[in-house]
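ARCHIVE CARD
Drawer: 12
Card no.: 0347
Subject: one protein chain, sequence and derived structure
Cross-reference: see card 0346
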Amino acid sequence: MTARKVMLLGEIGVGKSSLARRLVFDKFEFDYKPTIGVDVYRFDIAATPARGAMSLILWDTDGNFGDAIFKHIYMKEAAAAIIVGDIARAPTLDTMVKLGQGFAESFPGRHIGYIVNKSDLAADPDAVPLPYELTRKGQSFMRTSAKSGALVKDAFIDAADCIARRGL
């Protein structure tokens, strides 16, 4: 089984840790504990006809780094970044775009997936206006809820599929 490093990026409080815990442990914790530095999780994905089995090594960053994260040792050998925003906090969506641009410039050819989290907080998540860069054709994008688990596993399986297609 191959292992690939995936960075979880985004502002503080967007739900990066909650997504990782929902994915790995299939649970949601209501008491918020901010990440200090980085937490590392492992999630194994079964093989498909198009992709071999893969372990995603998730590096859950604390969100305080901003653009400086791209120069940090944490980023070494990252095959992908999953960039997370909060559907109820519009400025975090703009930050997602900036982080995506920074990752693409620093690590050309690597997969970038965008997750707008906390979709359970919006009456109609599809009606929330999003920056064009997040939803343009061919972009890896999902609206998730770490609380309910909606589309969480799908977002990470999509990342594994894209990593495999790119040969990373």
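Annotation on reverse: The first strand starts at residue 2 and ends at 9. The mean pLDDT is 91.
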